[in-house]
Amino acid sequence: MSTRIVAGGTGFIGRYLVEHWLKQNKKIIVVGRDKTKIDRLFLGRVESITWDHLQERGADWVRNSEFILNLAGSNISAHRWTPGEKFSLLRSRMETTNLISKVCSALGHQSPPFLCAGGIGVYGLQRTSQDLPPRLTEASEIHLDQHPEFLAKIGHDWEQATELAKASGVPVVNLRFGVVLGKNGGALKKMQRPFQLGLGGPLGSGNQAYSWVHLHDLARAIDFILTQQPIMQGPINIVAPQCVAQREFALQLGKALHRPARLPMPGFMAKLLFGSEMAEELLLNGQHVYPERLLQAGFTFQYPTLEQALAEIYKG
């Protein structure tokens, strides 16, 4: 039985992917800080190892695996972006990615594929207007001097941490996730609460581009990438083909929850609640990102529109 290694497998996306692959009868190794937590969460159905174990004996596990997927990283929106929190967010991604890159690079061409999570924030924020801004694809150039935002820096540095593995001949896939929508967690868990109280509505101007993906399509996209021979490498946008303005997202979420979506949150209020930098980058601005490489390779989304995705999530 082939083994799949999932680092950071106890988070919202990781838990879903591990369960998704367990249903396919795959053997899973989950890497994390706390073996007891992993064993409790998955009821002993996976093998659990710590980061120290991976550092000491990682080559043995990785060499015999189908691939290693890195999802490790602190929640980007859990706390206000103080200088200390921003350092912690960056460190939580860089330390783990550097470690996996080192393990894989030691194996060189014998290493299985290394898939590393990342975000569409790497593209930088786009100007907000009445119409959606131009599409950003994997071929779009990234200029950190033009986009000095924190999310652009963290996305860029995160991908740069995989360069050691790439230079050693390891097949590396940089997964650029949009906002991931799914049941009982992730962004929706926070977003739905005001709507459930009848207080939902657009944020700021409501014109900011909102690139998203259903969690099930995220899993299907990773499965698809792994079936391609040779495997798709480099950056791949994991977003639905339909980007919407945030105002439309609020309307669709209200419709799915059978709640009104008429109470906008002014930009200044978002800045007071979350801090100016976090509000600007996570809530009041966005990116119109398109999954060009997936579509060109023949991938078909099960939930290509926001209405379909939210209907499935809130069905029944």
What's the layout of helices and strands?
Layout: E1 3-7, H1 12-22, E2 27-32, H2 35-41, E3 47-50, H3 51-63, E4 67-70, H4 83-107, E5 114-119, H5 150-160, H6 163-167, E6 172-177, E7 179-181, H7 186-196, E8 209-210, E9 212-214, H8 215-227, E10 234-238, E11 244-245, H9 246-257, H10 267-274, H11 276-284, H12 292-296, H13 306-313
Parallel strand pairs: 1-2, 1-4, 2-3, 4-5, 5-6, 6-10, 7-9
Antiparallel strand pairs: 8-11
Kindly describe this structure.
- The structure is a single chain.
- The chain is an alpha/beta fold and 316 residues long.
- The chain has one domain (73-313): Rossmann fold (3-Layer(aba) Sandwich).
- Helix content is 44%, strand content 15%.
- It has helices at 12-22, 35-41, 51-63, 83-107, 150-160, 163-167, 186-196, 215-227, 246-257, 267-274, 276-284, 292-296, 306-313; strands at 3-7, 27-32, 47-50, 67-70, 114-119, 172-177, 179-181, 209-210, 212-214, 234-238, 244-245.
- Strands 3-2-1-4-5-6-10 form a seven-stranded parallel β-sheet, with helices on both faces. A two-stranded parallel sheet has the order 7-9.
- Helix 2 (35-41) links the parallel strand 2 and strand 3 (47-50).
- Helix 3 (51-63) runs parallel beside helix 4 (83-107).
